[in-house]
């Protein structure tokens, strides 16, 4: 039986790509054993177990960029996490370890390298972090999401530019049906605003003020997050522009299908979804993201003409309204941006990443030494 362990978590940007790959691998090889290594305080603790995957916890801590005092104990935490990773890998005996980022990825991948367990790394962002750049030397295969990331690695033989895996149900929805389902007018241009699953307070507040400045009309589909929902819902009831407001949108496939432009942060997973759906976007990178990676992500799309970027310091109601109006008023430019976004999209990334996992397993173990019943 082939055993695969995914190491990553803390945020959705690290755990959802791992889940997408795990599901695809399990679908392809039903008899395989797929497990996860994560942290108790991460998003994986509540998301992974209900999916039927075994999750083991490792206590770990990352480098703090704000408190030098807390970094004094980092060596102790690192040593303990490496010991836990060593015990876990001895117990589970995976044939392959896949690292997707987050603090927990480091000790598991590092120990896997020492134990000569095959390793695949999947980097979501265009600007890879220090940990990924270090661990890449232990990896057999390094899967990147953006070609811009190649310059940070001197390992051409290991690199594959594949993209970020997304959920299968996000792509291919019909615009009219999606708008009807979401209680939107079928004949109006639609602006989809969201800041991730938790919402983005600063974007919400600026967008609220922008509503009175918009000249292009249209309508707004708005995922606010729980904290801002009551306020945004109350203050958009009597606006001249129609707003359909929700704290969280479960059916993101319909949300993307219904939209003409997307206003959002620039997390790697969000951009993978936007480009897979071929949507033009106005991106507002989160300024406190590690190594400013969201700005690098947004710049990659802007460079290809798929998006426009507004830095947080430049974000005003007037600027946001101007960008939205200029896009909605220019059908030719809007279509060109949509085409460029679609070109950057990698809707088959999960399948291609599992292809790389399969190739690595066969290469390391020999074609005759592992036999797994595939799902047809």
CATH architecture descriptor text of the largest domain: 3-Layer(aba) Sandwich
By DSSP (H or I, 4+ residues per run), the number of helices equals: 14
Strand tally is 13
Percent in strands: 15-25%
Please give the largest β-sheet. 7 strands, parallel
How many structural domains? 2
CATH class of the largest domain: Alpha Beta
Mean pLDDT: 91
- CATH H-level superfamily title of the largest domain: Glycogen Phosphorylase B
What does this structure look like?
Helix 1 packs across helix 14. The chain is an alpha/beta fold and 376 residues long. It has a seven-stranded parallel β-sheet, with helices on both faces. Strands 10-9-8-11-12-13 form a six-stranded parallel β-sheet, sandwiched between helices. The chain folds into two domains: 3-166 and 347-365, Rossmann fold (3-Layer(aba) Sandwich); 169-344, Glycogen Phosphorylase B (Rossmann fold). It contains 14 helices and 13 strands.
The gist of it:
This protein has helices spanning 12-28, 44-47, 74-92, 105-114, 130-135, 175-181, 201-210, 226-235, 252-258, 268-276, 293-303, 317-328, 331-344, 349-365, and strands spanning 3-8, 33-38, 54-57, 96-101, 119-123, 141-144, 159-161, 190-194, 219-223, 242-246, 261-264, 281-283, 307-309. The protein has 376 residues and is of the alpha/beta class.
């Amino acid at each position: 039986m082939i055993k695969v362990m995914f190491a990553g978590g803390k945020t959705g940007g690290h755990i959802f790509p791992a889940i997408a790959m795990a599901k695809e691998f399990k679908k392809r090889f039903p008899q395989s054993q797929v497990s996860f290594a994560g942290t108790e305080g991460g998003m994986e603790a509540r998301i992974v177990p209900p999916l039927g995957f075994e999750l083991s916890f490792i206590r770990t801590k990352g480098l703090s960029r704000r408190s030098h005092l807390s970094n004094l104990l980092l060596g102790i935490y690192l040593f303990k996490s490496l010991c836990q990773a060593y015990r876990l890998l001895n117990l589970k005996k995976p044939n392959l370890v896949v690292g997707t980022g987050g603090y927990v990825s480091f000790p598991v991948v590092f120990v896997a390298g020492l134990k000569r367990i095959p390793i695949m790394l999947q980097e979501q962002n265009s600007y890879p972090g220090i940990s990924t750049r270090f661990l890449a030397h232990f990896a057999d295969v390094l899967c990147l999401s953006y070609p811009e990331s190649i310059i940070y690695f001197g390992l051409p033989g290991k690199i594959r530019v594949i993209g970020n895996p997304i959920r299968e149900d996000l792509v291919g929805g019909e615009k009219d049906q999606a708008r009807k389902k979401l209680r939107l007018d079928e004949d109006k241009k639609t602006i989809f605003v969201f800041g991730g699953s938790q919402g983005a307070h600063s974007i919400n507040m600026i967008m609220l003020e922008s509503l009175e400045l918009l000249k292009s009309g249209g309508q707004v589909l708005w995922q606010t997050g729980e904290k801002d929902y009551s306020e945004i819902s109350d203050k958009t009831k009597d606006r001249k522009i129609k707003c359909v407001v929700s704290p969280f949108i479960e059916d993101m496939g319909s949300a993307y299908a219904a939209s003409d432009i997307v206003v959002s942060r620039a997390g790697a997973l969000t951009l993978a979804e936007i480009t897979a759906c071929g949507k033009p976007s106005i991106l507002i990178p989160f300024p406190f993201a590690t190594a400013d990676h969201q700005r690098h992500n947004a710049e990659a799309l802007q460079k290809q003409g798929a998006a426009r970027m507004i830095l947080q310091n430049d974000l005003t109601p007037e600027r946001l309204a101007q960008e939205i109006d200029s896009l909605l008023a220019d059908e030719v430019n809007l279509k060109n941006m949509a085409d460029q976004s679609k070109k950057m999209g990698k809707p088959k990334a999960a399948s291609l990443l599992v292809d790389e996992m399969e190739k690595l397993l066969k290469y390391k173990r020999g074609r005759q030494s592992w036999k797994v019943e595939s799902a047809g």
